[in-house]
Write a structure and sequence with these properties.
Number of domains: 1
Number of helices: 7
Distance between the termini: 5 Å
Strand content: 25-35%
Number of strands: 16
CATH superfamily: Ribonuclease Z/Hydroxyacylglutathione hydrolase-like
Radius of gyration: 16 Å
Strand order of the largest sheet: 6-5-4-3-2-1-16
CATH class: Alpha Beta
Length: 230
């Protein structure tokens, strides 16, 4: 298995013969150079979307059309895109599990918001979520944009993820201290990867506080397009 950060909250996960793009933000992503875009998405088989904010969704429909691959996400938005954009989608909802050809994905709760901008103001884009991704004997918890929440204990009881990908840059999501609290009190991660940080000066720039909270967990501060092998 390889987990590759594409900057911000975007990831490429190669697992059980599939290549999953998580919230792929290419256009205008200050951490991913334009000449890196093709390498970031090459061979992708699915796009997983956690919510509708621009830094997660702006490239989703164009990539689905260009690559000819399905978008996997919240039922209401997937149904809308399937009808209006004529792309292939896999729509499901929180608590549901889909099998992507040997990789099982369960949608779990998140606490955030999910809207698109429009000339008439923000429009609701389904609801925000996270994912449990299982394959090759591992389970990855992708938190999506969220605050810490007591539901995380239930997630661990039901899924026991050994790998965590937590949005923890603060301001828009939980910060490193709150993510550290979640990791320490609700999970037993062996490997933990922070994201949704370092993108802008507004966000936290280091995961030192997170790492200090879970000294027995391997906390990896990712670098763009440098695969992490698990």
């Amino acid at each position: 298995m390889q987990i590759t950060w594409l900057g911000h909250a975007s990831f490429r996960i190669e697992i059980a013969g599939k290549v999953l793009l998580i919230d792929p933000w290419l256009s205008g992503n200050p951490m991913l150079k334009e000449d890196q875009h093709d390498a970031a998405v090459n061979g992708a088989t699915h796009i997983l979307l956690t919510h509708g904010h621009f830094d997660h969704v702006i490239d989703t429909v164009p990539l689905a059309k260009k690559l000819g691959i399905p978008v996997v996400g919240q039922y209401d938005l997937m149904g809308h895109w399937a009808e209006k954009e004529k792309i292939e989608t896999v729509g499901f909802n929180k608590g549901g599990t889909v099998d992507l050809g040997g990789v099982k994905v369960t949608m779990v709760h998140a606490v955030h918001s999910s809207t698109f901008s429009s000339p008439e103001g923000p429009k609701i884009a389904g609801t925000e979520c996270g994912f449990m991704i299982s394959g090759e004997g591992h389970t990855i918890y992708v938190s999506g944009d969220t605050d810490v929440m007591a539901d995380m204990k239930i997630f661990n009881d039901l899924h026991a993820p050994d790998i965590g990908i937590l949005a923890c840059g603060g301001h828009f999501t939980m910060d490193m201290r709150r993510a550290g609290y979640a990791a320490k009190n609700f999970f037993n991660f062996k490997t933990l990867i922070p994201c949704h940080y370092r993108t802008f000066p507004l966000l936290e720039q280091s995961a030192e506080v997170l790492a200090a909270a879970v000294p027995n967990t391997k906390v990896i501060e990712p670098e763009v397009l440098q695969p992490i092998s698990i």
